[in-house]
Amino acid sequence: MLFSEFFQKWLHETYYKNAVFVGRKGDFYTAVSVGELFGSLLAKHFLSLIDKKILTLPLQVVEIGANEGYLSCDFLSALVKFRPSIFEKLEFYIIEPHEKLQILQKQTLQDVEFTHKKTLKDCHFTNAFIFCNELYDSFACELIDNDKMAFVKDFKLIFKPLTPALKKQCELLKLQKGEFSPYLSSFFEDLNAACERFVFAGFDYGGFLPQKFSLRIYQNHQLYDPFEVDLKAFFAKSDLTYNVNFTHLKYLIEKHHFKLLNFKKQSQALLEFGLESIMEQSENKEKLLSQAKYLFFNFDAKFHFFEFQKSPL
After folding, report:
1. pLDDT higher than 80, residue 27
2. Residue among 111, 302, 134 nearest 208 (CA)
3. Which of 84, 113, 119, 297 is buried most deeply by CB count within 10 Å?
């Protein structure tokens, strides 16, 4: 089978479907695992977009890839502190295909009125703020090695000639060796069809013009090279991820005539979101300072914040 099909079965048809935990109890950490500061900073940024009239009320607020729902919980809790009156002009949604994760999200957000949707194809948003954390690195990908692509047989990686269609895509992006996700293209098509207008804010790790494979496995916070281990032993029992190809991401933003609002390192973005003002207002500065140090020094330079906008013609 195609490597992307193997990836999809591993991650989305089994691993995430079984409602894995993220953080200390899981296989990997994200910025959300650090504490409520990350969601609070995103809430500050969201309010600044409204104040600058980049976003206009009323709004549909949407998280994609919420896992247990902690980012949404932290984000909404911060809005209650910063500007509670705004809630009368917000509708909240989570896009989540997996029933077990929907149950966890309902438990985390038990005091929040929100609507679950399974996919973007099920949605129609007139004016949305959409956010996600480490979403794109979970999209199934192909492994490209010059004129060859990966297939999986009996849990072994084998490389065969590129299909003509994929070869054309790789040439367009100047991709010679690395990961290419056809699901990223499909996501942008669904996003465009589902929304009349939106601002999309995302966090992910990646780089431009990859020259090597970044595919890796995380199990119990240990890193493994999928080219050196028995894939069968890890299949559906661990996280499989890779660096997002930001060249592809920017290409799709331009292709769909979206406006790029932000693209910068995650640490720089979080600082600009309003860290200083949150610290000044906090009654537990020591706790937030500890979280801030972890966010700024434990996530490497590959982590980025990107934000783009669709406005009516």
Report:
1. no
2. 302
3. 119
**Cβ-Cβ contacts under 8 Å for 227 (sequence gap 6 or more):** 157, 213, 215
**pLDDT tens by residue, 61-92:** 999 999 889 999 999 999 999 999 999 999 99
Interval 93-97 mean pLDDT: 96
Residues 99-104, mean pLDDT to the nearest whole number: 92
DSSP the chain: -BHHHHHHHHIIIIIGGG----STTSS---GGGG-THHHHHHHHHHHHHHHTTSS-SSEEEEEES-TTSHHHHHHHHHHHHH-GGGGGGEEEEEE---HHHHHHHHHHTTTS--EEESSGGG--BSSEEEEEES-GGGS--EEEETTEEEEEETTEEEEEEPPHHHHHHHHHHT-SEEEE-HHHHHHHHHHHHHBSSEEEEEEEEEESS--S---EEEETTEEE-TTTS-HHHHTTTSEEE--EEHHHHHHHHHHTTPEEEEEEEHHHHHHHHHHHHHHHH-S-HHHHHHHHHHHHHSS-TTEEEEEEEE---
DSSP secondary structure letters along 148-187: EEEEEETTEEEEEEPPHHHHHHHHHHT-SEEEE-HHHHHH
Residue with tokens 């969201």: 46
Residue 50: pLDDT over 90? yes
Q: Which residue has the higher pLDDT, 48 or 286?
A: 48
Q: Select from 202, 222, 207, 217 the least CA-distant residue to 301.
A: 207
Q: Which domains, from first to last, does the chain contain?
A: 3-310 (3.40.50.12710)
Confidence at 280, pLDDT banded by 50, 70, 90: confident
Q: Which two tokens stand for residue 178?
A: 């690395």
